[in-house]
Amino acid sequence: MKTMMRATVLAAAVAASGAAGAADFGRGPTPYYSSPTQSYYNWGGLYAGANIGYEWGHVSGTSLDPSGGFGGAQIGYNWQWNQFVLGAEADIQASAADDTFAPWKFSNPWFGTVRARAGYALNNILFYGTLGFAYGALDGQLNSLEEDKTLAGWTGGLGLEVGLNSRWSAKAEYLYMDLGERAYTITGTSNGLGSNLLRFGINYHF
């Protein structure tokens, strides 16, 4: 009887041990889990592009308000630290802005800017402010007399740029441009140009 009991206990122990081993063998090693790598849009580096827009402004010392479309090209460079973006941009524009109040006419046939940009990126969306130097022509006309001068001043504004893919981005920008004043013989006083600029552009990132 005792021998039978010992055999029964031993058989139960062996069976339990085998079941435990089989359970361990069935689980296998825990699989390795790797979280997906999160990527961000890269705003850093050299870029260049083109833009079109509309200008409306006022010639000081007169009742003239030149307005019209414009278009041109820009080139710039960005530096990026996490979500903060700093950069520099230069552009040159041909403009059709003018206004006539007989016998005077004033026009702004071209202008350009050199500006710093500072922005905050939400991945491929960049919000930025910009401030810098502006220069351009303010041409006056009195009947058949013409007086063309180049003026210089400042410009500043805000913009939004969206990365379309790794190479291309599109932007919308508002600038206020003050070209200062110079003395004009045809008006007998100092005249200058202050303009609002709304433009849309596209950039290629190298």
What structural keywords apply?
206 residues; mainly beta; 8 strands; 67% strand; elongated; disordered N terminus
Unreliable spans are 1-28, 30-37
**Which H/E pattern describes the elements?**
HEEEEEEEE
Q: How does the helix and strand content classify structurally?
A: mainly beta
Note the overall shape.
Answer: elongated
Averaging pLDDT over every residue, what do you get? Answer: 87
Overall radius of gyration: 35 Å
Ends apart, CA distance between termini: 91 Å
Q: What percentage of the residues does DSSP assign to strands (E)?
A: over 45%
Strand order of the largest sheet: 1-2-3-4-5-6-7-8
Biggest sheet record: 8 strands, antiparallel, barrel
Q: How much helix, percentage-wise, in residues?
A: 10-25%
Strands, total number = 8
Q: What is the number of helices?
A: 1
Provide a descriptive summary of the structure in words.
This protein has 206 residues and is mostly beta strands. Helix content is 13%, strand content 67%. It contains one helix and eight strands; from the N terminus they run αββββββββ. An eight-stranded antiparallel beta barrel has the order 1-2-3-4-5-6-7-8. Strand 3 (84-101) and strand 4 (104-122) form a beta hairpin. It is elongated, with a radius of gyration of 35 Å. It starts with a helix and ends with a strand. Residues 1-28 and 30-37 have low confidence and may be disordered.
